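Person: Please work through this fold.
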Amino acid sequence: MAISRKLEDYFSKQNISFQRVSHFYSNNSIGSAVASSIPPKNIAKAVLLVDHDGHRLMAVLPADQKINIVSINEELHASFELLKERDVFNLFMDCAKGAIPPVGEAFNMSMVYDESLDMLDNVFIEAGDHETLLKLTHQDFENIMGNSKHLKISKNMLH
């Protein structure tokens, strides 16, 4: 059960408490939901974006949703696109490839998050490996989101 060092340091400094939830190896947030028997809507995932000036943005949304980049660009009057995978890996070197904790501040990154996450009593996030989720209370999740904008930035995966 490995937690990202940057994430652990950030949680310690911010006095954020969490519970570790171990599960079988999974490649993605939906797999983590299945492996841990947690509803996908309760797992927050990170999607990394970049604009033409190189400004990075972490979008945080439920595991059962897909990002709506058009909505983000309209809301923020920006032109973000998905960050290339090789660039993601370089930003999160203390995490397993593809196991990005959705906590932008821990990695010096701005964030937006989907407003549907505001409705949850507990939110589960990736710890930085493919076998551990961290359970946060609603209040602790709000604390790590800080002053991030909460917008409607996702849409259903299935139509």
Remarks:
- DSSP finds five helices and ten strands in the chain.
- The longest strand covers residues 43-50.
